[in-house]
Amino acid sequence: MVRGFLFVPAVLAICGLLLAGLAVSIDRSDLFDPVFEALPFLNISTSGARSVLGTIAGAMMTVISLVYSLTLVVFTLAAGNIGPRLLETFTDNRVNQSTIGLLGATFLYSLFVLYVVGENEVPRLSVAIAIALATTSFFWVVYFVHDTARRVMVDNEIARTQRSLRAAIDRLLADEPKEEPDDRDAIPDGEGTAVPAHSSGYVTAVQAEALLHHAVEQDGFVQVVARPGHFIIAGTPIAILRQVGGDEKALAGAVHRSILLADARSADGDILFNVHLNVEIALRALSPGINDSYTAISAVDQLSASLAIILQRGAPSSLICDEEDKPRVWLELIEVKEIVGTALHPLRRAASGNVMVVLRLAQAIGRMALVCRGDHATILRTHLRLIATDANIAVRNRDDRAEVAHELYKAHRNLKRADGRR
Prior knowledge:
The protein is α+β, with helices and mostly antiparallel strands and about 425 residues long.
């Protein structure tokens, strides 16, 4: 609800109307007359006040149209040069929302005061507030242009999306216990009862606490099949209920309410979606029509820093137990092998033959090997082998092959050191 160009601008605009009513009421109460008499430069005639308010209202409407036009131009550039799925992050930008809201609030404030003030009234406080709002709007528009100019720079956008990814990973891993090798053994045996989806769509969130509460209430075990980011077809299973001692239908209904579906993926709670954003930027940069290796290298560098967090700390446990330590819910949020493969497989395939990007991929794996746990070294070793295989086929120059081999050797040496790390 708070996303896009509706909620925040509308709230700020309504605040402008309320402020206008309050300012006019104070003006009519003559509460600040001593202040204005002590500050003669704030004195203004009725015609002057109406002229100032009319000028501010007209100027704000003009600037609002310019801000919307500039925003649409930025959307067009971002969709063509960076990636269309990043448009949601632009609409969620609080600077864009607050700029439109502040300009709208100033416009409605000036228009309302201009309408309600009588011919013989001198709204000195109202005019002073209007001037203050117009001044604030001017400096905020300057900041809006500055922020917009920074956001259309692809390196800044890559870094911003990866900061969001790292923050999401930190939130996910902060309070969750680490995954244990025998966690899956806690899933009860038997086929269980599948809970089919009522509609199709992307899983945007799974409410783990609600699932745990209802699983305890109905004395059952819920194995969630649908994970955030997965696309679900109506009629396919989203969860499996096992050993339910209570009302199975009630638990199935709770599962449907706890797994949220939408038409499009969202960065909130979907770790893989943030990975896809950077991969999309890199793939677009490596396409023959653009052929921008340095943008792809920037994406590889930022992704390696995000993946290193997971490789170092491991995935959170998928097993959720109740207060009596009895297994109740199985919910896989992320899998280390999947998230690393989601990032590295497309980049490796697209970069085949591009020596610059292949070298940076090998260097990125070498950097991640310095911090990864020993049980995750096999994952990186597999990707290193695939890079070597592709480079052996696509890179024909002898010196280039030697350089790639040297970087692969250094990464492999770092992985050997990681084998004993826990």
